[in-house]
Write a structure and sequence with these properties.
Elements (H helix, E strand, L loop, with lengths): L12 H15 L6 E5 L9 E10 L3 H4 L9 E15 L3 H21 L9 E13 L5 E15 L1
Parallel strand pairs: 1-2
Antiparallel strand pairs: 2-3, 3-5, 4-5
Helix pairs in contact: 1-3
Amino acid sequence: MTTPIGNIPASSIPAARTWIFQGLQTQLAGVQNILVCLDEPGPYQPDDIISVGDVHQQYSPESVVGSGGSHWLREDYTITVTVDVYRGGDDAAAVFARARQLADLVVAVVRSDPSLGGAVDRGKPGTVQHTSGWSEDHKGRQAVVEIGIDCLKTL
């Protein structure tokens, strides 16, 4: 795929996001009360949600012009996958354990094919942030795990 400007290759970001999303959907097919979505969930919000969302990319001079030849580009970016688990009541340990279980699944999907289906040269789990506590309405516990999937692609 090329962009409207000559032979400059298009970004690998859409393909990488789609591969992660589809891999998670496949692994969780048939599991009740879980939503796998791109970006933020809509009005249907079960207790377990995994969203493949934000992408953080940084360009630098060596990323747009370099020694890679004509139309060469190096993409470095992070795709954020968010695991959000809620349970009514006060069982903080169970909520955190479920969020961690789903986060481990995200990591396993990425590690099963570090090329993310050929979308990137290397994809790997990077930074992880855990947040847990009472839900906003104080009717239950919530745990959120944000996993950064670091991606590299030279085009």
